Amino acid sequence: MQAVSPCPWRMSASIRRTDATLANVNNSLSFLQAQDGVLKTADKILNRMSELATLAQDVTKAPSDLALYDTELSQLKGQLNLMVGEEFNGISLFNSGTTAGLDVASTLTVVTSHDGDQTVGITQVDLEFISASVGTASGDGMDISSNAGAQTAVDTIQTAIQNLATIRSNNGTEQSRLTFAADMLAVNKTNIEAANSRILDVDVADESTKLARFSILQQAGTAMLAQANQSTQSILRLIS
């Protein structure tokens, strides 16, 4: 039984779907990169909070100095709270509305194959839980206007920094997986395009060889026919 060649039009459709899937995966990768950019800024805010709380532990600081530290801390709380609402193309970068813990998060499903059979989940991490842990929910959950309050604040902020490191690690893992998925799609696209080209495109070298062969055969046939005609005419002259 003769083998049936793959349909070139179906392969062309696969190429277009692979292109579209690759674009979607790259967009999802951009989502994670934007998310990590916000998390990186959140890390800077928490580190500054930690520095302020540590400075407020100094027993030589006057109450007015501690009040200044606490004022800056309140401003940083407000900025951290605003970052929870950041979006990427209208899609929330972070899970919101919960303060139950880091495990409470939303997952977006990213299709990573042109046939839709393979998927990867990316996480809208729970930045609100970290934000609330340092007092942004009530606005006064952490106070460094006293040495004792500053000591408590240091411990709270250190825990928040560790939790933030955990979700940034998760972000990096998901970015890595999506990068490999994008690489695989690019390789698959190249392979499908090569197969499609073999089916549709003319093999110039092979066709040139065939043309030369047929030309030689045609010329040989013409020469033999001419020689046969000449032989016939010679015989007729002898008879006459």
CATH class of the largest domain: Mainly Alpha
Low-confidence parts:
none
Query: What order do the strands of the largest sheet run in, or round the barrel if closed?
Result: 1-2
Q: Radius of gyration from the CA trace?
A: 37 Å
- The average pLDDT score comes to 83
Note the total helix count: 5
In helices, the fraction of residues equals 55-70%
How many strands, what sense, and barrel or not for the largest sheet?
A: 2 strands, antiparallel
CATH topology of the largest domain: f41 fragment of flagellin, N-terminal domain
Number of domains: 2
Quantity of strands, as a count: 4
CATH architecture label name of the largest domain = Up-down Bundle
Briefly note the structural class of the backbone.
mainly alpha
Element-level helix/strand string? HHEEEEHHH
Strand content: 5-15%
Distance between the termini: 61 Å
Instruction: Assign the CATH superfamily of the largest domain.
Output: f41 fragment of flagellin, N-terminal domain
Could you state the oligomeric state of the chains shown? single chain
Overall 3D form: rod-shaped
Summarize the structure in words.
Strands 1-2 form a two-stranded antiparallel sheet. It has a two-stranded antiparallel sheet with strand order 3-4. It has two domains: 8-199, Up-down Bundle (f41 fragment of flagellin, N-terminal domain), CATH 1.20.1330.10; 205-239. A hairpin with a 7-residue loop joins β3 (106-111) and β4. It has 240 residues and is mostly helical. α1 (8-55) runs antiparallel to α2 (63-83) and α1 packs antiparallel against α4 (147-200). The longest helix has 54 residues, at 147-200. The chain has helices at 8-55, 63-83, 127-133, 147-200, 204-239, and strands at residues 87-88, 91-92, 106-111, 119-124. It is 69% helix and 7% strand. It is built from five helices and four strands.
